[in-house]
Write a structure and sequence with these properties.
By secondary structure, the chain is an alpha/beta fold. It has one domain: Rossmann fold (3-Layer(aba) Sandwich). Helices cover 34% and strands 12% of the residues. It has eight helices and twelve strands. The strands form four sheets. The protein has a six-stranded mixed sheet, with helices on both faces. Strands 1-4 form a two-stranded antiparallel ribbon. The chain has a two-stranded antiparallel ribbon with strand order 2-3. The chain is globular and about 60 Å long.
């Protein structure tokens, strides 16, 4: 892939996550260079940034980061996938994660998606222990904790994520007007309907649908804000559909609450990281007419 040695960096803190972007041009071929990793994070165990070594100008001072900058949350880092790389080690970056390009992969931490799934799993334990809704008729006990009539507290957080992303992309544009930026969506974490998720995730059937819908809304918001800012959007959901945490062990991209492959709970395994990398590359190639 052809990249420019000149890069513009924009970093902004929002909701405990840091964001970065760098420019892409068509001058030199540097994609085979192994990027250097460095960490900046409000949550050291979940956020990651990967970048190439800094270049220097004629005076010998730093001219900013090199061709690669990719930053995001734990879905970018690939925690639990061997082997760990970069410093400090607490950032849990894997050498099998996908960043080698200009990407923003954010949002899940801001809405507390991991905590949301944990809470729904707890509700699921009680659901199955008390007759699977036989006596209450409520097959989405977790949803009831977050949605009251027309008020959906998760959607409110997603809207806030959209505002933060818009502000960040505006800052990227201000600092690096020539940058080509790609916002990366999230892969399929859960299926649209329950299926075997009771076995693998301990979720009530209605809550599987609830969580799936919230993730779809998060991805839709990321896409809308990216397109409104003139940035690209990488759809990792479409290629990962059918490879969620409740799918077959041999084909899943995302591990369940008890991982059966090296990965953090409810996070991509190595197969998922490769799939996300392919989605990024395919999107960039398509934008160039390849």
């Amino acid at each position: 892939m052809k990249t420019s040695a000149r890069a513009g960096l924009a970093v902004m803190a929002a909701g405990g996550i840091f964001f970065a972007a760098t420019s892409l041009g068509d001058n030199d071929d540097s994609a085979t260079a192994a990027p250097k990793s460095a960490a900046v994070s409000g949550e050291p165990s979940h956020s990651t940034v990967s970048g190439a070594p800094e270049s220097t100008d004629a005076s010998g001072s730093s001219a900013g980061p090199g061709p690669y900058v990719a930053l995001g949350d734990s879905y970018t880092a690939g925690p639990g996938i061997p082997s760990r790389t970069g410093t400090p080690t607490g950032c849990d970056r894997s050498d099998h994660n996908y960043p080698a390009l200009v990407t923003l992969g954010i949002g899940g931490n801001d809405i507390g998606f991991s905590e949301l799934i944990t809470q729904c799993a707890k509700s699921g334990i009680l659901y199955f222990a008390t007759g699977s809704g036989k006596y209450t008729g409520n097959h989405a006990p977790c949803r009831s904790q977050y949605v009251d009539g027309s008020t959906d507290t998760v959607r409110q957080k997603i809207n806030t994520v959209g505002d933060h992303l818009a502000d960040t992309l505006a800052e990227v544009e201000r600092r690096a007007p020539q940058a080509r930026v790609y916002v990366v969506g999230y892969p399929a974490i859960l299926p649209a309907t329950a299926g075997d998720c009771g076995r693998d995730m301990g979720l009530a059937p209605g809550d599987v649908t609830f969580l799936h819908q919230e993730q779809q809304q998060l991805n839709a918001t990321l896409r809308q804000r990216a397109e409104a800012a003139g940035a690209g959007y990488v759809d990792t959901y479409a290629p990962s559909k059918g490879h969620d945490a409740c799918s077959a062990r041999e084909t899943r991209w995302v591990e369940p609450l008890v991982p059966l492959a090296p990965a953090a709970p409810v996070h991509p395994n190595a197969r998922g990281e490769r799939g996300m990398a392919d989605a990024v590359i395919n999107t960039i190639n398509a934008s160039k007419g390849f």
